[in-house]
Write a structure and sequence with these properties.
By secondary structure, the protein is mainly beta. The protein folds into four domains: about 5-55, no CATH class; about 65-150, Immunoglobulin-like; about 160-240, Immunoglobulins (Immunoglobulin-like, Sandwich); about 250-360, Immunoglobulin-like. Helices cover about 5% and strands about 45% of the residues. The chain has two helices and 28 strands. Strands 14, 15, 17, 18 and 19 form a five-stranded antiparallel sheet that branches. Strand 1 (about 5-10) and strand 2 (about 10-15) form a beta hairpin. The chain is rod-shaped, with a radius of gyration of 47 Å. It starts with a strand and ends with a helix.
């Protein structure tokens, strides 16, 4: 028996063969209806191209599925982003997109439809959940659900600095900080102080004494915040360096002369223990100073009359200076053993170079 097919168009069926046959069920396509005639067992032969074409038109789209979904971090903390991590599969190899709907304590959060969840009203103990729907561009798959609890959030250090910026030996180095606890819990701190990479103190003290330190020592602190239950992330400060200390003149000149010349033993200190050199930058004629000891001597005569300015300096090996100025006044030639000053001696100290030792 022969084969035949008929195509039904808007003008009616059009036979493709003259043999009698019966029409198979209709296969409907856009703008075209194909009627296959199945007159006999060999009406569709293996290998016929029309057979493969008809089979492909009957393929069915598979629904996308979600293999896993989780909220991270779990438990949720308030100082980290909250997100849904989803893995899905599509048997047809279609690209899957995911639709999200977030809820807090069972209530839908309007606008929260992305994989990242941002909502500033969260607090410790809240129940957060998300419904995720897979979509392959044709059909939506089954909804997957997961949830997490908002846990305790550790405190966080926002800023940590040490002062003074250029400490000298003997100064107190202090840590100044700014910290925040999202849950509003009281914050406690652990300070680990370091000198040249070696730990020298560990505890709750926010300050470090440097009396035993030396010029050039490097100081920094590691600070760890914690609340009643959780330790926060430690933070390390920037370093500060012990700089050269300037000398300081502690003595004052005498206000009288017992007998003989004017004598003044200048006494200066240097916190670094450096040797000092003394000099007279201004002095009356005949006044001398010992460069190493700082002893001033000035022989007086019966002709010494008037006011005389004296300026003495003490200098360390790094060119840091201290100076002292005072006036000696004689209303008349000194015929007695008492020497009067026009005013109380003024004492000045000045750091000429702040960091010569480190620069060199």
């Amino acid at each position: 028996m022969g084969r035949c097919r008929a195509i039904l168009t808007s003008n009616g069926p059009t036979p493709l063969c003259s043999s009698a046959c019966t029409l198979a069920p209709l296969l409907v396509f856009t703008g075209l209806i194909v009627l296959s005639a199945g007159c006999s067992a060999d009406s569709v032969q293996p290998g016929d191209p029309s057979s493969a074409k008809a089979g492909s038109s009957l393929s069915v789209n598979h629904l996308p599925i979600i293999q896993s979904v989780r909220i991270q971090p779990d438990p949720i903390v308030l100082n980290r982003p909250v997100s849904a991590v989803t893995q899905g599969h599509d048997a047809d190899g279609d690209l899957i997109t995911f639709r999200h709907q977030w809820k807090v304590n069972g209530q839908i959060v309007e606008g929260a439809t992305h994989d990242i969840f941002e909502w500033h009203g969260l607090k410790r103990g809240d129940h957060v959940s998300v419904d995720v729907t897979p979509y392959d561009g044709h059909t939506a798959g089954a909804v997957a659900h997961t949830d997490a609890i908002v846990g305790n959030t550790p405190p966080d250090i926002k800023e940590l600095v040490l002062g003074p910026e250029e400490p000298k030996r003997g100064d107190i180095v202090r840590a100044t900080l700014s910290a925040f606890d999202p849950d509003g819990d009281p914050i406690h701190y652990r300070y680990r102080w370091f000198r040249n990479e070696s730990e020298v103190a560990d505890g709750e003290e926010d300050a470090l004494a440097t009396a035993e330190f030396s010029r050039g020592d490097v100081i920094f602190v590691e600070l760890t915040p914690f609340d009643e239950t959780t330790k926060g992330k430690a933070r390390v400060s920037g370093p500060v360096v012990i700089i050269n200390s300037h000398p300081v003149i502690r003595s004052v000149p005498p206000d009288k002369i017992e007998r003989g010349p004017f004598i003044y033993q200048v006494l200066a200190e240097d916190r670094d223990g450096d040797p000092l050199t003394y000099a007279l930058e201004a002095a009356p004629a005949g006044m001398r100073i010992d460069r190493k000891s700082g002893r001033i001597e000035w022989p007086l005569s019966g002709k010494t009359v008037g006011s005389f300015r004296v300026r003495v300096t003490a200098t360390d090996p790094y060119d840091s200076h201290a100076y002292q100025e005072f006036d000696l006044t004689f209303a008349s030639a000194p015929t007695v053993s008492r020497l009067h000053f026009s005013k109380a001696p003024s004492v000045h100290t000045r750091l000429v170079t702040q960091n010569r030792a480190l620069l060199e």
